[in-house]
Design a protein that fits this description.
Rossmann fold; Dihydrodipicolinate Reductase, domain 2; 9-stranded mixed β-sheet; 5-stranded parallel β-sheet; 22% strand; globular; binds nicotinamide-adenine-dinucleotide
Length: 393
């Protein structure tokens, strides 16, 4: 890392993340962790008063706090280069990701957007082609675009990826990613629960329920660690209540481009489960297992050898895992730290590109990763609707 990065912060504006929201504040915590980002503006809610309330709580200049993202973008674009927001961080419900991103790209802002990338695969394709021909504020090069598939930021996930990519478990034969939550086991959307109400509404969530909300994380993790892209899916999607339109209980068989087989189970009606994201990768000579609720452990098995338990900050880890770790062995790191690894990688690149437009993020999931997530959702929905048939993703 160059000293010009160490002394700088990437300025950003957030869209979403207002009072009582979930992930916006996590993004802000992650952005602060390595002191590489500065929140300078925001449109935290479409309600001006609520947006201003969050802006005031965060100590923002209220002249840079808006109730309309179009006003925010227009105002920031007018500011001198040295003070204007450089990237727009999108943490609204899914249906607003593409409109906000599209407007941001038009101005030349870099974008860091939460998943799923947007509302449909067609929107994702439009964003991809728009980005390819857009110009950044810094010159004739496309703005940066990142997607916060934050589970890729855990040190032990990066260790698993390193082990697969360096061949230490041989050719990968099978990947299972189970993502089980129980918070939608009852119809809490009928009680106006904020996070539930838009997630079960196809107008705001998109074509996938659990599939879009957590299945896309699982699909990304399988590709990120396994190193091959999902080529085909066969899905069986279930809905636990007659009034729920979107799936809340999804099983998706996978076939990767490499020929590897796999399975994503994404359910939000699993009573007793919290944020149970479990990854298992089986190769010819070894296997790996990681569980999000015990994120500092990676289980490594190999033919004819005793099981190895690898720990964050412990001995024998790759540089990829070590570089994603902040504390010595036994000092637990978790969700915020993993999120921060994505943020800091993206912010470092934003800063570097002030001088070097060829700089690209090392780790941040890309727009194309997000677009593949949208194709995964739509292929799975089509497969299930067609009576569980194989569909290209
Ligand atoms: N990466 C992760 O682990 C993770 C976890 C949770 C949510 N998410 C994603 O983050 C996004 C937000 O999810 P959430 O659970 O925080 O939702 P939420 O309902 O808790 O918060 C959404 C926020 O967006 C604001 N908003 C709505 N319309 C707006 C507009 N027009 N302009 C500005 N702000 C507006 C709301 O006021 C609210 O503050 C979703 O896309 C979701 O899929 C990702």
């Amino acid at each position: 890392m160059t000293s010009s990065i160490e002394n700088s912060k990437a300025r950003y504006a957030q869209v979403g993340g207002g009072p009582d929201s979930f992930i916006g504040s996590v993004h802000r915590m992650a952005a602060r962790l390595d002191n590489r980002c500065e929140l300078v503006a925001g449109c935290f809610s479409s309600d001006q008063a609520r947006s201003l309330r969050t802006g005031a709580e965060l100590g923002l200049d209220l002249k840079r706090t808006f109730g309309s993202y179009n006003q925010l973008l227009a105002a920031e674009a007018q500011r001198p280069q040295h003070e204007r927001a450089e990237f727009i961080n999108i943490v609204t419900p899914n249906h607003l990701h593409a409109p906000v991103a599209k407007a941001a790209i038009e101005f030349g802002f870099d974008v860091l957007c939460d998943k799923p990338l947007c509302h449909s695969a067609a929107e994702a394709a439009e964003l991809s082609s728009q980005l390819a021909s857009a110009n950044s504020f810094y010159g004739k090069v496309a703005p940066l675009f990142g997607v916060t598939y934050n589970y890729s930021g855990y040190p032990m996930v990066r260790e698993a990826r390193h082990r697969v990519h360096s061949g230490s478990i041989g050719t990968v034969r099978h990947i299972t990613v189970e993502y089980s939550q129980g918070w939608l086991a009852q119809q809490i959307e009928t009680e106006q629960q904020k996070q539930a109400s838009w997630r079960v509404d196809p107008e705001r969530a998109g074509a996938g329920g659990a599939l879009g909300d957590i299945g896309t994380h699982a699909a990304h993790l399988a590709e990120f660690v396994g190193g091959s892209k999902i080529a085909r899916v066969l899905a069986d999607l279930g809905t636990s209540f007659s009034s729920r339109v979107l799936d809340d209980n999804a099983s998706v068989l996978l076939r990767f481009e490499s020929g590897c087989r796999g399975l994503v189970c994404a359910t939000q009606v699993a009573v007793g489960r919290e944020n149970g994201l479990r990854l298992r990768v089986f190769g010819e000579t070894g296997s790996l297992e990681w569980f999000q609720e015990e994120p500092n452990t990676l289980i490594v098995d190999a033919l004819d050898r005793p099981r190895k338990i690898m720990r964050t900050g412990g001995p024998g880890l790759s540089q990829d895992a070590a570089a994603a770790t902040r504390l010595p062995l036994g000092h637990p790191e978790g969700f915020i730290e993993a999120f921060a690894n994505v943020f800091t990688d993206f912010a470092d690149t934003v800063i570097l590109r002030r001088q070097d437009l060829s700089a690209t993020p090392q780790w941040t999931p890309s727009l194309e990763d997000g677009a593949r997530g949208m194709r995964f959702i739509e292929a799975a929905v089509a497969s299930s609707a067609a009576g569980q048939t194989w569909i290209d993703a």
